Amino acid sequence: MIRHIVFFKFKPEIAEEQKNKLVEDLKTLKKKIPLIQRLEVGFDIGKKPNSYDLALNTDFNTWEDVEKYSIHPDHVTVVVFIKQICEDVCKIDYEVND
Predict the structure, then answer these.
(1) pTM confidence score
(2) What's the Cα-to-Cα distance from 1 to each of 44, 61, 64, 75, rounded to whole Å?
């Protein structure tokens, strides 16, 4: 299994409505893209200077599934919105051997 984690840092001027829209858009991906085995999304509660604002945690069966997900039209649409409202995004992909 491959775990795909993404952290988002919103631009300072972004309204709560836009932040909540991103959360809903991300949650909806699970229904639209069957390659996603598990999806969690949540706002940071720590609010530390080195914290990001939002995290996405997803699992896929294979690395090939992650690559297909990355170019899926529904995912690409969300990425366009992310680029509009986020000043920074970072991610990590790693193999889970549970």
Answers:
(1) 0.93
(2) 25, 5, 11, 20
Q: What are the distances in angstroms from CA 7 to CA 4, 12, 98?
A: 10, 16, 23
Q: What is 43-63 written as a DSSP string?
A: E-SS--TT--SEEEEEEESSH
Angle (CA) 74-80-83 rounded to 5° is 140
Give 14-28 pLDDT, tens digit per residue: 999 999 999 999 999
Rg (CA), the chain: 13
- pLDDT for 63-80, tens place per residue? 999 999 999 999 999 999
**Which is it for the CA torsion 35, 73, 21, 3, positive or negative?**
positive
92 is written with which tokens? 């990590």
| CB 95, CB 66: distance < 8 Å | no
Q: Quickly tell me which residue has 């690395």 as its tokens.
A: 63
